[in-house]
Fold this sequence. Notes:
The chain has 336 residues and is an alpha/beta fold. The protein has eight helices and 18 strands.
Amino acid sequence: xxxxxxxxxxxxxxxxxxxxxVPEPGPGELLLLVEAAGLCHSDLHVMDSAGTLPxxxxxxxxxxxxxxxxxxxxxxxxxxxDQPVAVHGVWSCGECRRCREGxxxxxxxLTGPIGAGLGYDGGLAEFILVPSERFLVKAGGVKQExxxxxxxxxxTAFHAVHENLDAIAGGGTALVVGIGGLGHLAVxxxxxxxxxxxxxxxxxxxxxxxxxxxxxxxxxxxxxxxDDRVDLALDFxxxxxxxxxxxxxxxxxxxxxxVGSAGGSLAASKRGALPRGxxxxxxxWGARSxxxxxxxxxxxxxxxxxxxxxxxxxxxxxxxxxxxxxxxxRAVVVPH
Length: 336
């Protein structure tokens, strides 16, 4: 049996839609019918990496995956069959001290391929093979087109906020820089998990409108327009300019969280211009327990991704639009 899959076959080139065999689950494995798969800027970084990543070509892209379990290998409990699920994209070892702590996103043995669509075959196909039930979260009650982008965009935003709630405990001010695919979800997570004042900054009028729709208290077109100091700055852009400006806006004891990967850098020194007690972090994705919390928020209606959808055949054009900054929120492919 054959299926369509969007595969990266050459570094620096667009992925190709090809036909490949439908995989069969072996011991411990699960086969999912892919209901929806999100497109991400990380995919563009992978395409453009020129072979610097420890991944072997070819492989199927797509690390934001939602689907239904349609077949299982030996050793997998039968109650997984026919379950709608979200795929946790970090395929960790499950044995190192980070994994035992429930921090699988920082798995100590994850030095090569990371997971679905990032070195291993991902979800931009009609079916996906998942190596363990450890990488699935049951997700009934959430539309699959909504669920797929939440497995990365929602999970990354949730983890970045949740890990830093102590910085805005009891109130305070949280700054969200960049109201794109992740930033608009971070605004919602802040609204759901904290009582902080939420300030959103983005030069695009359309993004400003999205921030207002999702509950930002103050929406600005540029960081230079903000006079007040903030307790928590979440930078979903990560350019030289946004890093520098956001750092300068920190209150004493404030924290800068870098999520965006625009290639910027920040000179940090104990004797530099940063405020007393400054803190800096760069979180990565999120743990499986975080994904469970994200699915719960989505089921409650507290977390809603702005999406536009297309078919597998339309995925290359969606990637081009994503590269050009033309996608509002997240682009999602519905293979069937």
